[in-house]
Design brief:
Layout (H helix, E strand, L loop, with lengths): L2 E3 L5 H9 L6 H18 L1 H11 L11 E2 L1 H9 L3 H19 L6 E4 L5 E8 L2 E5 L8 H14 L3 E5 L9 H10 L3 E3 L3 H10 L9 E3 L4 H10 L4 E2 L7 E6 L5 H12 L6 E6 L2 H15 L5 H11 E5 L3 H11 L3 E5 L3 H4 L8 E4 L5 H6 L25 E8 L2 H17 L3 H8 L5
Parallel strand pairs: 1-12, 5-6, 5-8, 6-7, 8-9, 10-11, 10-13, 11-12, 13-14
Antiparallel strand pairs: 2-7, 3-4, 4-15
Helix pairs in contact: 2-3, 2-8, 2-9, 4-7, 5-6, 5-7, 6-7, 8-9, 10-11, 16-17
């Protein structure tokens, strides 16, 4: 695995390349995706059927073939290994408990002059969840996207997932059953995003779309934003690790590879203050690579987008990592909690040697749908509020409008809005 040092003459250039890690050619696929969206808008299910035949290689003979039945979900659940079933339920309960703590509250405040101000929080009517199904199927993504919607109180949840060759992952079906999903469709890619954003004869129009996907999915989400709300524009998975001399190179190596095996475009970046740890970790990465079922994918990711940076001290390491703003950040140091106040930008922060990133992916409770490509500087993890909205509550008494009305009217006058001003002043007439 590549090792660079902050003292290298070309370090700044190397670091700029790291910051560019997630740049994807959205412009390059925008015209393709726009055509797909337009086709769905104009032709609905017939367009979906053509897209499925082209991309997923199976023929949809009727509209009902697009649907995944609740019977299929229950059958998959009933046939599941009991230990695996128990694990999924454990994950469900922990994720649900965590997200319940995020619920925002409605509130009302009363002022002395009779003014009543407040905020009403309510769920969207319908949420659309995109669950990947290409190179790997992710039942955990279903849990992570469905549960916050359930906790928020969304009345109807719509799931779309690609099914190459009309094959559905059994674990995904079982996860749908656990979450009580009743509307799920065998549609993937930009077609699914367009169908959920605009609606078709079979797939309902939703209010918000969440879930990760490839560049076509990400581009489609960007293009339909405004017609619906979205969670974020997510790119390839990534991990950052802060390590000192106390860190175990075996732990570091396999944790770096835990992201590399996702995708050839995934990024694995470690910053350490110790040359020896850097060298030993690089050796362990090579050793572990030979044991992985997805070795070719992981190797390409590590070779092209993996790097170990040796910094002069931890303050420099923290500064660099905050600039990277990784999706996942592991802190593998003696004083992990002491560093927490200095970490400004990361999707999820994993503290201590016994907290590998996969714990967050599956079982800890916090959401694993996270901002990538440095967008943790302004995006948050998927959460309950992605499925909720707020309404302001305003009520003025006569005393209140008498007290504040003229000031309001004057501001309206200043902006040249005569009717605005008069609508207030007419209520001030005695």
């Amino acid at each position: 695995m590549k090792i660079i040092n902050t003292t290298d003459s070309n370090f700044n250039e190397e670091f700029e390349n790291i910051l560019e890690r997630a740049k994807t050619d959205i412009k390059g696929v925008s015209s393709i995706v726009t055509n797909i969206i337009d086709d769905i808008v104009q032709n609905g299910n017939s367009a979906i059927k053509e897209h499925i035949l082209k991309f997923d290689k199976w023929e949809v003979k009727s509209d009902s073939d697009l649907e995944i039945s609740v019977d299929e979900m229950k059958k998959a659940y009933d046939n599941m290994d009991e230990k695996l079933k128990e694990s999924l339920h454990t994950a469900y309960n922990r994720i649900k408990a965590y997200h319940e703590k995020q619920l925002p509250k409605s509130w009302i405040d009363f002022e002395k002059n009779g003014t009543i101000l407040g905020q009403k929080v309510s769920a969207v009517d319908r949420a659309g969840l995109y669950i990947p199904g290409g190179k790997a199927a992710y039942p955990s993504s279903l849990l992570m996207n469905a549960i916050p919607a359930i906790v928020a109180g969304v009345e109807e949840i719509v799931v779309c997932t690609p099914t190459p060759n009309d094959e559905i992952n059994e674990l995904l079906l079982a996860a749908c059953h656990i979450c009580g999903i009743t509307k799920a469709f065998k549609v993937g890619g930009a077609s699914a995003i367009a169908a959920m954003a605009y609606g078709t004869e079979t797939i309902p129009k939703v209010d918000v779309i969440t879930g990760p996907g490839n560049i076509f999915v990400a581009t489609a989400k960007k293009l339909v934003f405004g017609e619906v709300h979205i969670d974020m524009i997510a790119g390839p998975s990534e991990i950052g690790i802060l390590a000192d001399a106390s860190a175990n190179p075996k732990y570091l190596a396999i944790d770096l590879l835990s992201q590399a095996e996702h995708d050839e475009m995934a990024s694995s970046i470690m910053i350490t203050t110790c040359d020896k740890v850097a060298e030993l970790t690089s050796i362990e990465v090579d050793r572990y690579l030979e044991t992985l079922s997805r070795r070719e994918i992981a190797k390409k990711s590590i070779d092209e987008r993996g790097v170990i940076i040796v910094s002069s001290d931890m303050n420099e390491a923290l500064k660099l990592m905050n600039e990277i703003a990784p999706e996942h950040l592991e802190v593998m140091t003696n004083n992990a909690f002491e560093l927490l106040p200095k970490i400004k930008h990361a999707g999820a922060i994993f503290l201590g040697k016994n907290t590998p990133e996969p714990i967050g992916d599956y079982i800890a409770g916090p959401n694993h749908t996270l901002p990538t490509g440095s967008t943790a500087k302004f995006y948050s993890p998927l959460n309950v509020e992605n499925f909720m909205k707020k309404s302001s509550i305003i009520s003025f008494s006569q005393e209140a409008i008498d007290e504040l009305g003229e000031a309001c009217a004057l501001l309206a006058d200043t902006e040249g809005l005569t009717a605005h001003a008069e609508s207030v002043r007419v209520r001030l007439e005695k």
